Amino acid sequence: MSHDPFPLSTSPHPLGAPLVRREGREKVTGGARYAAEHTPPDCAYAWPVPATVARGRITDIDTGAALALPGVHEVLTYKNAPRLEPSDDPTLAVLQDDRVPHRGWYVALVVADSLETARDAAEAVRCTYETAAHDVRLTADHPGLYTPETANGGHPGLRERGDFAGAFAAAPVTVDATYHLASLHNHPMEPHAATARWTDGHLTVHDSSQGSTKVRDDLATLFGLDKGEITVISEHVGGGFGSKGTPRPQVVLAVMAARHTARPVKLSLPRRHMPATVGHRAPTIQRVRIGASTDGAITALAHEVATHTSTVREFVEQAAVPARVMYTSPNSRTEHRVVPLDVPTPSWMRAPGEAPGMYALESALDELAVLLDIDPVELRVRNEPETEPDSDRAFSSRHLVNCLREGAERFGWLPRDRRPAVRREGDLLVGTGVASATYPVLISGSDAEAHAAAGGDHLVRVNATDIGTGARTVLAQIAAAALGTSEDRVRIEIGSSDLPTAPLAGGSAGSGSWGWAVHKACTALAERLREHHGPLPAEGVTVRADTRQEASAKGPYARHSFGAHFAEVQVDTTTGEIRVRRMLGVFAAGRILNSRTARSQFIGGMTMGLGMALMEGSALDPAFGDFAATDLASYHVPACADVPLIEAHWLDEDDPHLNPMGSKGIGEIGTVGSAAAIGNAVWHATGVRLRDLPLTPDKLLPHLAHLPRPTD
């Protein structure tokens, strides 16, 4: 691999240029069509019926009143729904038996001529249950907790190095703190939707998904079809944040209904159903213990996480994994424990594991800095490891200290009075906070096809998915740079399982994975064209490439992105309201492929972290077993007024050990650490250390009553 395969002079629009995203005009003019906006002739509409008990089984379903409504075609239940083949995802085994594993599990599906009729008929379905005792409450001492062999991503459930217990007991300065994070929901603006139709034995599905190849493969398994008999299209997707990373029940139900009724069927999940149906970030109880010398060197570090999963499928939020990466820790213990409860199955949410785990770790680092009376930036610098602590592998690149230093300068971090609750503006207390961020570099093998037309234009085909990140634009830049042409001479086709196979958009791995295959195909095409003499044939020249071998190779380096977050907050001592005045992030994420779309991703992630810190959270009702916040009226997310000033910057990081573009993923790193920076700023403003997110006024206000009031 050459050190810099894309010198800036290779094309009129080099990598990193702030090109406007290609589909922008389509989106703002309504030309971009989403899954629920495809309406084939004679299309029917479906509406699902969720279970109203937390655990039990169905004893009777009365569908008579629903079927009697004009325009209703069918009500599918476990008694008459098409049978599905076993798959590796039991959350997709809908309408197959009488079991109810949690409230909100789908027990019926109405199919009608109109959306309104389907909704009314769903209300008319009467279901009788035999209930059983349920448990939805996660506690640190729950008797059902166990240590899984692996957490999400294949990470070991337990890792130990050295003698943590002995080192912690001997440390002159220690922190022992427990942090609680509530369940979080993805809530993309586009609800999960699918439109399915069968034509001469071929199934075509428009699905709101982060990866149509995976949807196609799972549908083939479930319905006993050959992959060639299915086309899944996810051309435009209105957000996902992980919840659309794997198939969800809507696509299975739509295909079921289309097969059963022999007509196209459209299903868009009601937003109130989504928290129980499409996954959520599981709540965590995280205990962090740090032992350090008086000069701030960490000698012992433990991060122990308790979380829940469902009785349907095991999913373990890998929140302790960042502690294996971040700081010098010769004696370490990191453990995940999980308990199966009668809850919906948790799943991926932006920066799974790293987002909640780094909140706890970076908050504990701040608590240690307070005990030692050391500047929080300086404490992190003093504990910068030479190699990855958990593996002892060298980092391919690690510029966390540079991010902290540059961020501190840009933010105006110093001079800073480290004492809390001393900066007052009338009834407002003001404080600043900092936190680090990390996210792994993930790459998967991909196929791509590059075509040169006789007229000089190019076509690149790859089954990437653009979930609002600008993937089309970045892939065109990669292709143009490899071909040595202008990006406006490159057309991109993505978003269909009929295209060359590619991994899903998730884990900050999309552009790196797809781009590598695009680069390889385009490089080979450019070489073919250089060797060709005379005009191209009328049909042009096509080259196909895959990167499975390269992506699966085990390299000697630990590969991660890093960043530093800074936040300034104000706290109203009368109301307890916390407002973020400004946020700043500085990131080291390899080569930035498009500065415009990258800044958008960083700022979006930071805003998501703000929501996590101050407003987002949903508790499970212990009596009824359902989430209390099920819509955007009750589940609050940040609005523009909540982010008055937010800045994202990055280092020009040169890392030759990643992929031909030298890029790292950027989708998640903006979220990781931002909530901790805000929480640390709240402590600095008030002297109150809250360890239970979100930091809402009701939690803070009782602590403010004891603070001295401003004098007239």
The strands making up the biggest β-sheet line up spatially as: 3-5-1-14-11-12-13
- Total beta strands: 27
Helical element count? 16
Considering DSSP H and I runs of 4 or more, what fraction of the residues is helical? 10-25%
Specify the structural class. Answer: alpha+beta
Strand content: 15-25%
Distance between the termini: 68 Å
Low-confidence segments, given as residue ranges, are: 1-10
| Spatial extent as radius of gyration | 26 Å
What report would you give on this structure?
The chain has 712 residues and is an alpha+beta fold. Helices cover 25% and strands 24% of the residues. The strands form six sheets. A seven-stranded mixed sheet has the order 3-5-1-14-11-12-13. Strands 9-17-16-15-10-27 form a six-stranded mixed sheet, with helices on both faces. It has a five-stranded mixed sheet with strand order 18-19-24-25-26, with helices on both faces. Strand 7 (150-151) and strand 8 (155-156) form a beta hairpin. Helix 8 packs parallel to helix 15 (674-686) and helix 11 runs parallel beside helix 12. Residues 1-10 have low confidence and may be disordered.
